[in-house]
Amino acid sequence: MFRIERVEALSSNIYLMDVYAPRIAKNALPGQFLIVRVDEDGERVPLTICDYDAEAGTVQIVFQTVGAESYRMAQLKVGDSFADFVGPLGRPSDLCEMPLEELKKMKLCFIAGGVGTAPVYAQLKWLKNQGVTADCIQGARSKDILIMEDEMAAVSNLYICTDDGSYGINGNVCVALQKLYDEGKRYDRVIAIGPMIMMKFVCQLTKELEIPTIVSMNPIMVDGTGMCGACRLMVGGEVKFACVDGPEFDGHKVDFPQAMQRMALYKTEEGRLYLEAKEGASHHGGCGSCN
Amino acid sequence: MAMDMMKKVPVREQDPQVRAHNFEEVCLGYNKEEAEAEALRCLSCKNPRCVEGCPVSINIPGFINKVKEGDVAGAYAVISESSALPAICGRVCPQESQCEGKCVRGIKGESVSIGKLERYVADTAREMGIKPQGASEKKGKKVAVIGSGPSGLTCAGDLAKMGYDVKIFEALHKAGGVLVYGIPEFRLPKKAVVQKEIENVQALGVEIETDCVIGKSTTIDALMEEEGYDAVFVGSGAGLPKFMNIPGEQALGVFSANEYLTRSNLMGAFSEKSRTPIMRAKKAVIVGGGNVAMDAARTALRLGAEVHVVYRRSEAELPARAEEVHHAKEEGIIFDLLTNPVEIHADEKGWVKGITCIRMELGEPDASGRRRPVEVPGSEFDIECDCVIMSLGTSPNPLISSTTKGLETNRRRCIVADEGTGQTSKKGVFAGGDAVTGAATVILAMGAGKAAAKGIDEYLSSGN
User: CB neighbours (10 Å) of residue B196?
Assistant: First the structure.
């Protein structure tokens, strides 16, 4: 069993947890993910890794309650355990394999959206430990749902933007990137992690600006080890499995419309289970559509 | 009971009309009277050819004689000398091409129903609470077994019986490998059969660590250098699904058989209790003709679909066991033979709405010795459907070979290992099962696990 050692609510629906999982803590690298299962009847849920401490044997995850499983996860307290917690899965970021000298010369800009902030933090922290401080644009819809601001500022040159202009740059991450570009910032690479729609628009912009861009894909998965092919997506006209070939890909080659369409596969079913987890029933009869 | 000695005692099965709507086991097995009557048909040959046909060389006449005497415990002891998983093998082995295929009874009449007898012995022994015997003396050496499928469980069980400290590392959250994620409940009950046989292996002293992906959570090199394992057996299976690379394969409603079966079997999605979703199709097309295709077809049927199996060769070439094809037909699955998919069509929201296929005819024999299917020009036609399940076989996962120094693989990405001992190109590392052969059967994997256990024992006894 994988014991939960710390729980913190970062916003009304985003949670941070430290979980005891020594094998993952020892072997994880930035860019990788893990899979959790809340209990014996639970689904296997892929999550990005935010941080890891090999000495303490703990792994930090950050998740948002978007469906039945994450809602159940949010109910867990310190001392509870996950039934399963397996990883690290997927390939580490390319940056980890680059010679340090080369890495130090690169001008990097990370773009973090929503809970995508967590895996970006893992990369920024790793880079900082190598002596590299990258730029980072962190976007949120509004100031009150912005997470991990202090932590992010400690490991990067942080630019915050909010869609509603309540804090930092007024506008979304694309507006912020364009602004930095207009101010004369030039980057060798952009690494964007967040909702698919955000990554799609970032890629459209960076294509125009001719900045190579890496994205981290989070499609539907089951086993996470290459066995089922549920996470397949088209990259540069080829079928790739996000779990073993990714999750990071060349963003300019990813077929985003198709990847986003595939996310709809179990939408109705998921919604039903979410209502069941939250309200104990999925059918309220209020809308009148069932007559 | 008057009986025809030329014919098998028939085995009771769930009615096809009923079982098409449930996930309970199709075959109900023999009771005591039926088993003893069937056992009497065994001629106890001096040179039992059935044993030659068994990849793990079970003393078949030996255990059948015990059944004749009504001594189930004795029969179980005889089987246990050679096999750790008899309740599983009695259900899923292709007996018709192995032991039963060689049975002398089969020359004039029907062969002895060896598989059903093995199952009877294993099931009855389980009900009686009989456990296999562990080692009395420990060797003080540690062996890591990677993968808890048929080859890993067999290898681990044999090594534990010899006195080694064995730990199995399993990537998924449940032990059993293909027995758990691949083969459906209605052919191989998970709780009642698979779980119990795994518990028997654990009763021999074998430890199992689930949620540990070798190559990711740790590596073979780390197991040997840091965790003190003296030898390693790799039985990681052939897990990567193949697709056809035809247009439309990314549409919603197209699955690999691996995904569809994993959702239903491992995650239990067929049951209301599980929170893992699975598509309950109206009309499903299964592409392929192997045992996995039959499993996917019969699962989709039970989840409410009209099911078509599309296969490019003819019935005679279907790679699935005859019994599986027979069961599938009885349940109402439609076989569209000499047919091959060309393109999958999706509606404006991306969901599958149909599949274009082309008729095939058999030409000259190909490298496999089977007549090569060739397209009949202009014979394309459409099948309306909302789900397509690709069951075209699997290839080994490179997770282990790519993260282990000095482990040689061939061009099909299979690990290269000696057939007799399982020895790989890396000292102290042995391999067997689908990871070496590519997708094959449960019993062949068990045979390889058995051979490797012997190979590992020789290596650890001699130090080379």
Answer: 17
